[in-house]
């Protein structure tokens, strides 16, 4: 896909501004500068998301839309740990997930309906020595319905844009519609679906007629993917696991909605320590079960407190330094320096407005929390993060 002189040009200009390179097209009449600029932009954008692929000089990156929805290497390898045996990837795309499945030992059938994208991926898999992958081009649902083989796992990452290019979230709005695959699940075959982080867990579980597990996959406190595993053991009260890939022990928290509903939560005013739940825990809706041994600030304020430090909380822990009004004079009197993170929970104004009002610089080891308590009163707390 790339000639030696093109590879050399990309590597020599990898750290330059792509716009500046594009303006120099006339200097390189023998090179397709727009194509090479696209490759440089892709490598700059993906150096953290796909470091192994970017490190290979011969890898050719497809158009930006294919890159947009692609997994990261971290999340792809996590998914590969869930699958085994014979796997069909119905939404092959640029092939990062298929690559990870094959590298983990699975036998993979890759299917992509866009012929040019399938060609690029086949080339990249060859360059990267991906493993046991068979490549197919065409409509994946039709391919699957005509296939006589049984698979251990069907994997699908539906396109989350409609015909007009607008982003969509619901399963039936994505392409292909994952709900059409329910009838393929049997004692031999399971289904793993990757979805938008915005998808409602309860609604998706009901639409899928139950699932066995839901994985909320996070990297550095940001929800990256939702994974729904549908098997013959599926239920409408599945186990929900919050996965944090930046930790050595990636399982951060697990529970079920039935346990959450039955949990009883104590409420109380701010004490010596304050706790902010991980974003994956909030996505799971574990607002009460995460608070074991703690007091919640208010029903709709997802912050927690305790007199003694709890070191195993699924989120961030802080030492409370001061409590007072949302007034610049008071804040400056208790805050060392004029720098702090700002976090709002169930509060009438947003963090950006508070920052504008207080003129605090962003970052540092201190956080200003603004929230409503159980009596529906506005409160402000200055706290220091505990490592």
Provide structural commentary.
The protein has a nine-stranded mixed beta sheet. An eight-stranded mixed beta sheet has the order 10-12-13-11-14-17-16-15. It is globular, with a radius of gyration of 25 Å. The protein folds into three domains: 43 residues, no CATH class; 191 residues, Rossmann fold, CATH 3.40.50; 124 residues, 2-Layer Sandwich (VC0802-like), CATH 3.30.2130. The mean pLDDT is 94. The chain is built from 14 helices and 17 strands. With 387 residues, the chain is an alpha/beta fold.
Q: Could you give the distance between the termini?
A: 48 Å
Q: How large is the count of helical segments?
A: 14
What are the segments in which pLDDT stays under 50 over at least 5 consecutive residues?
Answer: none
* Helix proportion: 25-40%
Global Rg: 25 Å
What's the CATH topology label of the largest domain? Rossmann fold
| Biggest sheet, spatial arrangement of strands | 3-2-1-4-5-7-6-8-9
What's the CATH class of the largest domain, please? Alpha Beta
Structural class computed from helices and strand pairing: alpha/beta
The coarse overall form would be: globular
């Amino acid at each position: 896909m790339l000639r030696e002189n093109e590879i050399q040009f990309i590597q020599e200009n990898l750290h330059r501004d792509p716009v500046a390179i594009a303006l120099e097209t006339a200097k390189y009449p023998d090179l397709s500068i727009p194509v090479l600029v696209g490759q440089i932009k892709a490598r700059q954008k993906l150096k953290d998301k796909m470091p192994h692929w970017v490190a290979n000089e011969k890898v050719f990156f497809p158009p930006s839309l294919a890159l947009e929805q692609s997994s990261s290497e971290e999340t792809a390898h996590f998914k590969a740990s869930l699958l085994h045996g014979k796997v069909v990837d119905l939404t092959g795309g640029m092939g990062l997930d298929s690559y990870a499945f094959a590298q983990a030992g699975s036998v993979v059938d890759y299917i992509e309906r866009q012929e040019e994208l399938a060609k690029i991926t086949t080339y990249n898999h060859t360059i990267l020595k991906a493993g046991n992958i068979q490549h197919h081009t065409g409509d994946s649902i039709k391919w699957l319905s005509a296939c006589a083989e049984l698979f251990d796992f069907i994997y699908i990452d539906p396109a989350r844009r409609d015909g007009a290019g607008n982003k969509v979230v619901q399963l039936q709005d994505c392409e292909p519609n994952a709900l059409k695959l329910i009838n393929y699940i049997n004692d031999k075959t399971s289904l793993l679906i990757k979805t938008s982080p915005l998808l409602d867990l309860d609604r998706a579980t009901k639409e899928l007629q139950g699932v066995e597990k839901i994985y909320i996959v996070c990297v550095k406190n940001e929800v990256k993917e939702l994974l729904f595993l549908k098997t013959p053991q599926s239920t409408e009260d599945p186990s929900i696991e919050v996965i944090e890939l930046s930790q050595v022990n990636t399982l951060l928290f697990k529970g079920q909605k039935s346990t959450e509903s039955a949990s009883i939560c104590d409420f109380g005013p701010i004490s010596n320590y304050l706790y902010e739940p991980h974003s994956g825990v909030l996505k799971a809706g574990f607002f009460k079960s995460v608070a074991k041994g703690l007091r919640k600030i208010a029903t709709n304020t997802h912050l927690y407190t305790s007199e003694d430090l709890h070191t195993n909380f699924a989120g961030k822990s802080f030492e409370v330094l001061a409590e007072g009004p949302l007034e610049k004079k008071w804040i400056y009197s208790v805050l060392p320096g004029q720098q702090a993170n700002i976090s709002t929970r169930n509060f009438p104004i947003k963090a950006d407005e508070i920052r504008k009002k207080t003129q605090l610089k962003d970052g540092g080891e201190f956080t200003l929390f603004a929230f409503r308590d159980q009596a529906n009163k506005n409160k402000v707390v200055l706290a220091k993060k505990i490592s």
